[in-house]
């Protein structure tokens, strides 16, 4: 047994991609072609997005949007147009031909496709939250409150709000509570609070009809009883994209309760 074996886990070695608005932290795993780029959700991270790529063939490029991880926090407006520009910068750098977006990342992907419908050959949208209609739901209020608490550096209060977003049946599980606390600590430590105060007010597209020009096959994953990611958004996305397949999973947390199924669906689609 080596001195390191089983004793500690080394952090993955990330790189920084310079852009006009600052550096973007990214990580490439796997090898060869094709390459898939992954965009995380609001207050997400490279670590929380990697499970979606565990069964994906080829190279996998994960990155942090502005204000997350070690990426820069530019003074330019925090909009889906800006997020789409960051997604495009990483995708172009790693020559990605396929893309997966989670929640906010799905919105960034939608915006990018509105500008360049043929940029990718295959697409995966995981729990999309918004198209061209401003949000006015309780989930919006919770995100704004989380941004205020993050600005006050209140880790425990942010963790409690994150716990409220988890399925009721999962909230007492130690791993769920631990995950929420770790995520809250990350949010408070970085500039995610700026994203929480701005992005929830934004829409991904000015006109959802532009997505009708996308010809790439798309897989859309949604889940029932998720107020932050209403199923109707996923259904509308599936109606707009000409070659879309929609999978609506039961309640319970898309990765807490359905991780093997999610991995299988994405792995088969991005084989």
TrEMBL record:
Task: Look up keyword Hydrolase and say if it applies.
Answer: yes
Per the UniProt record, which residue ranges are transmembrane? none
Name under which the protein is recorded: Pimeloyl-ACP methyl ester carboxylesterase
Pfam families, A to Z = Abhydrolase_1
Q: Which domain of life is it from?
A: Bacteria
Keywords linked to the UniProt accession: Hydrolase
List the Gene3D superfamilies hit by this protein, alphabetically.
alpha/beta hydrolase (3.40.50.1820)
Q: Which residues are in the AB hydrolase-1 domain?
A: 40-253
Query: Record's GO cellular component, any one?
Result: membrane
Tell me, what is one Gene Ontology molecular-function annotation carried by this entry?
A: hydrolase activity
Question: Does the keyword field hold Hydrolase?
Answer: yes
């Amino acid at each position: 047994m080596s001195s390191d074996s089983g004793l500690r886990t080394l952090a993955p070695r990330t790189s920084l991609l310079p852009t006009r608005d600052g550096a973007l932290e990214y990580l490439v795993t796997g090898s060869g072609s094709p390459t898939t780029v992954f965009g995380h959700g609001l207050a997400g991270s490279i670590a929380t997005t990697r499970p979606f790529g565990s069964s994906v063939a080829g190279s996998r490029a994960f990155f942090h949007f502005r204000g997350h991880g070690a990426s820069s926090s530019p003074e330019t407006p925090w909009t889906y147009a800006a997020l789409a520009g960051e997604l495009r910068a990483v995708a172009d750098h790693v020559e990605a031909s396929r893309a997966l977006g989670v929640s906010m990342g799905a919105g960034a992907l939608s915006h990018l496709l509105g500008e360049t419908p043929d940029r990718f050959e295959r697409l995966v949208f995981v729990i999309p939250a918004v198209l061209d209609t401003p949000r006015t739901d309780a989930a919006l209020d919770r995100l704004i409150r989380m941004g205020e608490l993050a600005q006050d550096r209140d880790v425990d209060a942010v963790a409690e709000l994150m716990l409220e977003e988890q399925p009721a049946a999962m909230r007492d599980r130690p791993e769920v509570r631990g995950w929420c606390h770790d995520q809250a600590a990350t949010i408070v430590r970085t500039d995610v609070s700026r994203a929480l105060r701005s992005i929830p007010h934004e829409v991904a597209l000015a006109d959802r009809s532009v997505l009708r020009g996308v010809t790439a096959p798309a897989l859309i994953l949604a889940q029932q009883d998720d107020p932050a990611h209403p199923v109707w958004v996923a259904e509308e996305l599936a109606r707009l994209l000409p070659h879309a397949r929609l999978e609506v999973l039961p309640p319970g947390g898309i990765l807490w309760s359905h991780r093997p199924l999610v991995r299988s669906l994405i792995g088969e689609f991005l084989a």
